[in-house]
């Protein structure tokens, strides 16, 4: 006989399909159910479960699927792919911290997300002290990080002979070093309970491309970093993966010759940020996948 014995008798299983939420605090699990058909009394049950901490659960009434709600931090979350990821995570019931260099954009994005208690923060990922402050704020105001998505990135495309040293450093600091530092900050938060990290790379980091030596190097480095970190932290129940998009309809691709670029893509079109977000969500929620690179490029790598 365990300390939890007896809660099954108090739990009204007939109301399971009408469940609204299952909120887990640091000490108790509190279940609130809508009243069963024909009953005016809502069902409430509380029991202690030390293993299931830090999380909120929701159960979809449509498909009876349990979704574990986590705190997700999305760097570069106010624009493009990062914004699409923030929106999808919020739709899934996760609490989202939108991090952007522009504080107003981050806060506006957070306020536009479905659900409650989302947060917008300002952070320049090329500066270590900014990242430290961001995670300190998250820990104090939001709690324990479950998901990290690194979608912040810049490009300074040019042939190598025409590339300026300051542009090289800016790209490497933002795209590679910035993601390394945010991962380190999140790991300190995840070590006690596990989590998942998805870095946003690029098909260019996998295949290379003329005129993008520096950008390609930053994304290729991020791929190697992702695989190595996945090996380091797998035993702590932390998974690390990378999504490598191709041509996606964002600010970064506005200057491309669309017709020429589309001819190189087997599916015949640019991708949408929401399609990359679906891949990110898949990797975040897949408990047996780590150290992988998922190409979301419409088959572009086949033509490079």
UniProtKB/TrEMBL annotation:
Q: Does the keyword Metal-binding apply?
A: no
Presence of the UniProt keyword GTP-binding in the record: no
Which pathway is this protein assigned to? Lipid metabolism; fatty acid biosynthesis
GO annotations under biological process?
Answer: fatty acid biosynthetic process
Domain Ketoreductase positions: 70-251
- Pfam families listed in its UniProt record: adh_short_C2
Q: Spell out the molecular function terms from Gene Ontology.
A: oxidoreductase activity, acting on the CH-OH group of donors, NAD or NADP as acceptor; quinone binding
The family classification in the record reads:
Belongs to the short-chain dehydrogenases/reductases (SDR) family.
Alphabetical list of NCBIfam families matching this protein: PRK12826.1-2
Query: What's this protein's name?
Result: 3-ketoacyl-[acyl-carrier-protein] reductase beta subunit
Organism lineage: Eukaryota, Metazoa, Chordata, Craniata, Vertebrata
């Amino acid at each position: 006989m365990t300390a939890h014995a007896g809660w099954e008798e108090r739990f009204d299983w007939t109301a399971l399909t009408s469940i609204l939420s299952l909120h887990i605090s640091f000490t108790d699990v509190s279940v609130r159910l809508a009243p069963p058909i024909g009953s005016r009394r809502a069902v409430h049950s509380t029991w202690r479960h030390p293993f299931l901490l830090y999380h909120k659960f929701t159960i979809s009434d449509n498909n009876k699927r349990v979704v574990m709600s986590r705190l997700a931090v999305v760097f570069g979350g106010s624009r493009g792919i990062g914004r699409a990821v923030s929106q999808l995570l919020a739709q899934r019931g996760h609490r989202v911290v939108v991090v952007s260099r522009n504080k107003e954009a981050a806060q506006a994005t957070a306020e536009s997300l479905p659900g409650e208690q989302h947060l917008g923060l300002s952070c320049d990922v090329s500066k270590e002290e900014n990242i430290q402050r961001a995670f300190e704020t998250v820990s104090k105001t939001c709690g324990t990080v479950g998901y990290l998505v690194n979608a912040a990135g810049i490009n300074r495309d040019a042939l190598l002979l025409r590339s300026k040293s300051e542009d090289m450093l800016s790209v490497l600091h933002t795209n590679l070093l910035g993601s390394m530092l945010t991962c380190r900050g999140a790991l300190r938060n995840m070590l006690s309970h596990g989590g998942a990290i998805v870095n946003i790379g690029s098909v260019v980091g996998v295949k290379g491309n003329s005129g993008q030596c520096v950008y390609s190097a930053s994304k290729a480095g991020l791929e190697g970093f992702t695989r190595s970190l996945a090996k380091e932290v797998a035993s702590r129940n932390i998974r690390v993966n990378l999504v490598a998009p191709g041509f996606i309809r964002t600010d970064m691709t506005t200057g491309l010759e669309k017709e020429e670029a589309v001819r190189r893509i087997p599916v015949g079109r640019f991708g949408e940020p929401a399609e990359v977000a679906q891949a990110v969500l898949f990797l975040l929620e897949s408990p047996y996948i780590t150290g992988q690179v998922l190409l979301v490029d419409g088959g572009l790598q086949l033509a490079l």
